[in-house]
Amino acid sequence: MVRFALLFTSLALIAASQIGCGTACENARNRIEGRYEECKIQVSEPTDPPTEEACSASDAEYLECIANCVDSATCEALSGADPVGGVDFGACYGSCAN
Fold first, then answer.
1. Which among 45, 60, 62, 95 would be 20 to 30 A from 51, CA to CA?
2. Would you say residue 20 lies in a domain?
3. Number of structural domains in the chain
4. Which pTM value belongs to this model?
């Protein structure tokens, strides 16, 4: 379960860093990064630098959904220390792709 939580954590941060720098995307990205900092969870930077593409409305909506999932998850769920919370976080994250 810890691996799943860390996988979702990595995916959330990669998604946040790879989508362009429009204001709505930046705000969601800052919320995600801020939550991980608040939980004292260190994550590695993506190996590919972020692109400078425009942030579309669908990009912003997707990142906002992920940010809402990250905000609602406990630090333990995000770190993998709480397997049940990690499953809930994964389900929330998965719902963002729909």
1. 95
2. yes
3. 1
4. 0.71
Residue 48 resides in a domain: no
87: number of Cβ within 10 Å: 15
Phi-psi region of 41 (alpha: psi -120 to 50; beta: other; left: phi over 0): beta
Query: 14 is in which domain, residue-wise?
Result: 2-41+54-95
- Nearest-angstrom CA–CA distance, 12 and 98: 15
Condensed to tens digits (0 to 9), the pLDDT of residues 47-57 reads 665 565 678 88
Residue 59 belongs to some domain of the structure: yes
CB of 68 within 8 A of CB of 60? Answer: no
Terminal Cα-to-Cα distance of the chain (whole angstroms): 23
